[in-house]
């Protein structure tokens, strides 16, 4: 009798644990997509040929029906070429308590050789989403893996829902800029981002969510790959401070990003 009760208790515990995981996984029924820049804000750096704002909007509009087909409610912070202040983007995300917030960006640098895909998060609860989206992106794109990193960018720090910012390659890199201008490639980026969202690990429950900064383990994705250091550039969603080490003519300038105030 005692053994039977013990087996019953273990079974109930397993069912409850599975249900709790499923609840955390399905609790987030909305995805707020934030196409970076827009309107007078082209994104990127001065003189950049390919406008970041156009690329981010196109990928976002391609991502929307993919997520809707998977059963998500999708909210866009912008669906045309207009400027939306950062505070408004954050407010939109925070108005949906059962949402995850995904910012779509492309990178830029003064050095044309800078390349690769990187993903950012700020809160502990956002780390599994960042790792999943990043893994899908680098697995389906020919660009280098620049890793998953924690940064206090405004749109990540001020949100009260899990939030991730992806940089889908460098528009100042000739090869990646050529990729980005292909309809097929932008569709592929959207499909990989959608796959990353759908395959994400269970996120924290809404009642326990806190947007706090911490060092967390995001699996096999490196926070910083020493082969690909941060390049200089001017991006609307963040400001940078530069630290240069002069060791040899082959040494790259390492970029240290500061948190946006």
**Computed structural class:** alpha/beta
Number of strands: 8
- Strand-residue proportion: 15-25%
* Helix count, DSSP H or I runs of 4 or more residues: 7
pLDDT < 50 runs, ≥5 residues = 1-26, 204-210, 212-261
CATH superfamily: Zn-dependent exopeptidases
Give a written overview of the molecule.
The protein is α/β, with parallel strands linked by helices and 261 residues long. 36% of the residues lie in helices and 18% in strands. It is built from 7 helices and 8 strands, in the order H-E-H-E-H-E-E-H-E-H-E-H-H-E-E. The strands form 2 sheets. A 6-stranded mixed β-sheet has the order 2-1-3-6-4-5, with helices on both faces. Strands 7-8 form a two-stranded antiparallel sheet. Strand 1, helix 2 and strand 2 (73-76) form a beta-alpha-beta unit. Helix 2 (52-69) packs across helix 7 (183-198) and helix 4 runs antiparallel to helix 7. It is globular and about 40 Å long.
Write a brief caption for the model.
The chain has 261 residues and is of the alpha/beta class. It is built from 7 helices and 8 strands. It has a single domain, classed as Zn-dependent exopeptidases (Aminopeptidase).
Write the layout of secondary structure elements.
Elements: H1 2-26, E1 30-35, H2 52-69, E2 73-76, H3 86-94, E3 99-107, E4 117-121, H4 127-140, E5 145-150, H5 154-157, E6 163-170, H6 174-180, H7 183-198, E7 239-242, E8 255-258
Parallel strand pairs: 1-2, 1-3, 3-6, 4-5
Antiparallel strand pairs: 4-6, 7-8
Helix pairs in contact: 2-7, 4-7
């Amino acid at each position: 009798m005692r053994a039977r009760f013990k087996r019953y208790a273990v079974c109930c515990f397993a069912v409850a644990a599975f249900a709790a995981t499923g609840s955390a996984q399905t609790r987030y029924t909305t995805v707020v997509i934030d196409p970076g820049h827009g309107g007078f804000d082209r994104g990127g750096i001065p003189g950049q040929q390919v406008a970041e704002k156009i690329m981010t909007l196109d990928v976002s509009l391609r991502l929307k029906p993919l997520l809707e087909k998977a059963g998500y409610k999708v909210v866009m912070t912008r669906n045309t070429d207009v400027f939306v202040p950062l505070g408004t983007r954050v407010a939109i995300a925070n108005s949906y308590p059962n949402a995850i917030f995904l910012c779509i960006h492309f990178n830029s640098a003064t050095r044309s050789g800078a390349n690769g895909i990187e993903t950012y998060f700020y809160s502990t609860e956002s780390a599994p989403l960042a790792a999943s989206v990043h893994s899908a992106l680098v697995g389906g794109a020919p660009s280098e893996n620049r890793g998953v990193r924690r940064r206090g960018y405004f749109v990540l720090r001020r949100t009260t829902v899990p939030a991730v910012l992806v940089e889908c390659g460098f528009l100042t890199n000739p090869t990646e800029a050529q990729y980005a201008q292909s309809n097929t490639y932008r569709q592929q980026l959207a499909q990989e981002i959608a796959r990353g969202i759908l395959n994400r690990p269970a996120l924290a429950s809404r009642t326990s969510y806190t947007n706090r900064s911490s060092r967390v383990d995001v699996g096999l994705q490196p926070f910083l790959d020493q082969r690909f250091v941060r390049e200089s550039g001017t991006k609307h969603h963040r400001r940078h401070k530069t630290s240069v080490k002069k060791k040899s003519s082959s040494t790259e300038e390492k970029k240290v990003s500061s948190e946006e105030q």
